[in-house]
């Protein structure tokens, strides 16, 4: 569960050094650099990433992750790649009349500013389509997450049985 996940901020190391008069101009330009760095799109942090082991012989697999956007700007998960599968789709499952149906999220998944999007809680999942081998419990799946703003980042999914809700 992700109850009470810490809203940890990335640490910005302070530079506590004395400033002599001739270096003030240099310092001012360093300050400009620091401001530009802060204005860049914040990295999206992966809080958990796991795949459920599919039944034997099934060539698709469902994976889940929780993504934390600490930035002040909304971002969007646009795509996922994984070597273990031919392609990775983003799906949402909706239960109507007791039957769960999933449909693709063609526009990706919005990651609002300063919040966590937990796929499991929202009925979202990543669908590994065309698995190249069995997804066995205890194994890991390497992938890459692509965003609208943030840089692409690697992700490691752990194959494990779903935890009790
Ligand atoms: Cu699906």
């Amino acid at each position: 569960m992700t109850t009470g996940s810490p809203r940890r901020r990335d640490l910005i190391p302070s530079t506590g050094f004395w400033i002599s008069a001739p270096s003030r101009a240099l310092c001012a330009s360093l300050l400009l650099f620091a401001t530009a760095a802060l204005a860049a799109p914040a990295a999206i942090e992966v809080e958990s990433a796991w795949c459920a082991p599919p039944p034997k012989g099934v060539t698709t697999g469902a994976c889940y992750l929780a993504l934390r956007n600490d930035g002040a700007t909304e971002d969007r998960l646009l795509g996922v790649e994984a070597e273990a599968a031919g392609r990775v789709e983003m799906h949402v499952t909706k239960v109507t009349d007791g039957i769960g149906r999933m449909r693709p999220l063609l526009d990706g998944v919005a990651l609002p500013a300063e919040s966590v999007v937990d796929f499991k809680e929202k009925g979202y999942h990543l669908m590994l389509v065309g698995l190249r081998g069995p997804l066995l419990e205890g194994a890991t799946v390497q992938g890459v997450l692509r965003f609208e703003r943030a840089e692409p980042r690697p992700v490691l999914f752990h194959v494990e049985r779903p935890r009790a809700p």
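The beta strands are 44-51, 60-69, 75-82, 85-96, 99-104, 109-111, 115-118, 124-131, 140-147, 153-159. The first strand starts at residue 44 and ends at 51.
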